[in-house]
From TrEMBL:
Protein name: Leucine-rich repeat-containing N-terminal plant-type domain-containing protein
Signal peptide bounds: 1-24
One Pfam entry name: LRR_1
Domain Leucine-rich repeat-containing N-terminal plant-type: from-to ranges: 41-78
Domain of life of the organism encoding this protein: Eukaryota
Protein family: Belongs to the RLP family.
Bilayer topology annotation: Single-pass type I membrane protein
Subcellular location: Cell membrane
Keywords: Cell membrane, Glycoprotein, Leucine-rich repeat, Membrane, Receptor, Repeat, Signal, Transmembrane, Transmembrane helix
Transmembrane regions: 929-952
Lineage, uppermost ranks: Eukaryota, Viridiplantae, Streptophyta, Embryophyta, Tracheophyta
Gene3D superfamilies the UniProt entry points to: Ribonuclease Inhibitor
GO (cellular component) term, any one: plasma membrane
Amino acid sequence: MGSRKATSVLSPLLFLALTFYAESTDPTPGPISNSTIACNAKERAALLRFKDGLIDPSGWLSSWRGPTCCHWTGVTCDEPSGHVTAIELTSPEFCTDYTFGGDSSESYTPRCLSGELSKALLDMEHLQYLDLSNNNFQGIAVPEFIGSMKSLRHLNLSYASFGGFIPASLGKLSSLRYLDLTVDPYSIRGLWVSDLHWLSGLSSLNSLRLVGVNLSRASDHWFDEVAQLSSLVELSLFGCELSKFPNHSQPLNFTSLTSVDFSSNNFHSSIPKWVFEIGSLVELQIMDANLVGDLPAIQEASLCNLRKLHLAFNNLTGNIQGIATGLSGCRNSSSALEVLDLTVNKFSGALPDPLGFLRYLRVLQLSENTFSGPIPSSLVSLSRLEVLDLSFNEMNGTIPNGIGRLSELTTLNLFSNSWEGNVSEDHFHNLTKLTGISLSSAKLGLLAFRVSRNWMPVFDLESIRFSNCIMGPRFPEWLKHQKNLSTIVLSRTEISGRIPNWLWIISPQIEQLDLSGNRIAGDLPPRLSFGYFSRVNLASNRLEGPFPLWSGVNELSFRNNLLSGEFPAVAHLHLPELKYLDVANNSLTGKLPSSISKLKSLAYLDMSQNSLSGKVFSNWTEMPNLKILDLSRNNLSSSIPGKMCSLFPSLEWLKLSMNGISGRLSSATLRCPRLSTLDLGENRLHGPIPKWTLPNLDAISELILRANNFTGGFSEELCHSKNLHVLDLSDNHLSGSIPGCVADMVGMKSYGHYYQLPLEFRSFYKGSIELNTKQQQMQYLDLIPLVNMIDLSRNTLSGEIPEGITRLSFLGVLRLSENRLSGNIPRDLPLLTRLETLDLSMNRISGTIPASMSSMTFLVHLNLSYNNLSGPIPWLNQFRTYNMTVFEGNPGLCGLPLRNSCSTHGGQEGLDDDGARENRDKDDRLIDLWFYISTGSGFFAGFWSVCGLLVARRSWTE
Ligand SMILES: *C1O[C@H](CO)[C@@H](O)[C@H](O)[C@H]1NC(C)=O
Ligand SMILES: *[C@@H]1O[C@H](CO)[C@@H](O)[C@H](O)[C@H]1NC(C)=O
Ligand SMILES: *[C@@H]1O[C@H](CO)[C@@H](O)[C@H](O)[C@H]1NC(C)=O
Ligand SMILES: *[C@@H]1O[C@H](CO)[C@@H](O)[C@H](O)[C@H]1NC(C)=O
């Protein structure tokens, strides 16, 4: 899980890591050492004018006075001529825009230059080296005249907040070896080019760094220009908004290009062949660049100099045989490869055996691809390997115990594959440097971790993550000797019994503890302190006793345990950091203390399925951050206060179903601006359903008021909600007719804009709602968005079913049973091609069953019983799967599966007048049409793609 989370924040970090890394590989020598010669008078005057143009609040250039200008800070002269050859004023501080004007609490003034660059620089005709990096020139342009500084060999204006267009005059600097115009990614300034033709003038350039410069206007030709720089050693075009990765057919003239970085662009294409034809490459990085497709064919021994290959965070496909080929056949019988990082791509196939011949390999990161097959046995001969990450793939087989010989290994990540067999002490024999290990298999029972009880491992772990791997029944004793543990994940490992005391003793160093899904029993220590902002998940065990007060914890789950007693009224004094609390399905009793609302950081609170009582929200204070609140299935009473939305201004998900909540619902209750899921089902609310108003009307996507005592009519505003896709008003006393405006419910016309739990909660628990979508109540988790349903059953609605309901093209469930509806079944019902459940039973519906309904091949659950339907049952397709209970109680119906056949049934022949024949012809045409459409789209494929997905979690009513 951790590694998945990390990916979303990676890009900016990557940027920093990479650019700072690049900082240390300057191939040009720095300024020549200082001397005691007197400086040239003209150049001394020029330096003073240059200084005058600068703003220097810290007095950094205070040494710039007196005659010996060669001794001034940052100035270097040539011996014996006294010409100024170098100005190096790179700030050692953070001078970026966001530190400027930031906290100015201290009197300390950082050494940061701003102001302007004086033309006086032109008077230093021997200046070879100019470095003004890390200052803040507040968006001034790179001056045009720099192009006339003919002697310049080294120009570094990186991280200095220059802005605007880069002048093409830079192309006149024919002696330039080093050019760095890197833009600070956090700066509000930006640098652009209108084209890159000027690059061709820089024929001596060794190092080109345009990190963060917007090259989008040069995107079509950028490589043509770059390809002419045949002396390049280093090229970094990280984050340059390049959108083309061109093919290039002419032979490339690079002979010394060793380092290339094209990361963080948006190529949306495959890697062109030429990239792997640069035989001099030592380091190649193209991460997070929207690369797609297979790798190009790579010639044998073409990557023999390559030490680092980073292609992580793309969508590359195919196998990695080509890379293995390019790395093989090298002289000295080994490639130089040290780092191979293909994390987060779509590479597939088995890992090629030759991977094991890369004897310099230190880092092998292949996680989050779809590699399959076993770990190649050759891998265990990579004696320099420090990081092996194969997690989140589809690999299988046993884990070779030769891994235990990889004595340099610090990180071994084998999480989330389909491993099987046993992992034993042998697997760790020589891993003295191991600090992190993760291991899990696809399902419990395939993989076991078996070590002797008194095993003393040779390593000292900081992090262990085991899941779906049998380690129990005893709690692993050997962990006791691991003194630096901060992450302990042993979920679904068949551990039972009590948690040993030593684990609680190290709680202050724990950042993550996950023992969920075991059979751990016993009481918990009432007081502990965990590491600050730690995450503790003990869900689905057999833990007992009162709710403990563990400080430092940020995320806490005791879901599915046996905790009892009252929720402590002092919790907020001990758990002020708590953001996530899940105590659902325990045995908490007593009044829910109003002081729980003093847990001001709470964003997620689930206390459903306990026996909590008391008046709901009585005396609660505002909980500004609460987004998700589930108190369903308790014994809470009283009415919902009108100020609920001001108590929870951030509320998105509210579930209070199955309590004893009574009273009327005030319209103020419905004005939470972000509330998208509201489940108040199975309470004792009464009175009319209040008028819905904006903005909540547009936010609401799931509304469940089932099984209360609501009266009055269907609230027509609901027809105009933009997102409502689950509407359950069943089992109330609603009367009147179903308004024709239901035809306008846009939420029922697509799957799509639906509520999802905020990202930060998704790894923990997915909010669920219970719905009567089939014959029974089902619990829906992440599939809620695929359920579009209207349930108005068990009310006293009358009138006809509005014909417009057939325009709700994505409706999956329509239940109108047990009302007083009359009229006919809408003739265009087959337009509802996704309807899975239709229940019209126990109404007064008359007329015939439209024969076209037999084309509704998705319709799995149908109930038409106890109405006044008549005529023949269209015994075709899906209808042949229905049994007689679907049709019973309609005395006028005939034919299979009922016993009364149509020919013997009185009045059946009477249908054969002209009007009826016309109707039947129309129906037959519809059958043809709909049958064609439904078979054309593949009945079974379609059926399983929707219904198969909808296989929801076991119904709690079972
Ligand atoms: C350069 O000259 C200054 C002034 O004489 C002196 O303080 C400094 O140590 C010298 N630096 C080197 C590297 O010789
Ligand atoms: C490589 O050099 C040759 C000869 O100088 C030149 O004709 C060719 O265009 C160069 N290739 C590239 C890609 O610039
Ligand atoms: C891969 O492609 C999908 C679909 O186009 C896109 O959503 C995703 O962001 C891409 N992933 C990467 C790492 O580029
Ligand atoms: C691994 O999976 C492949 C299919 O991907 C299968 O053919 C092979 O038998 C599996 N091997 C083991 C050891 O389960």
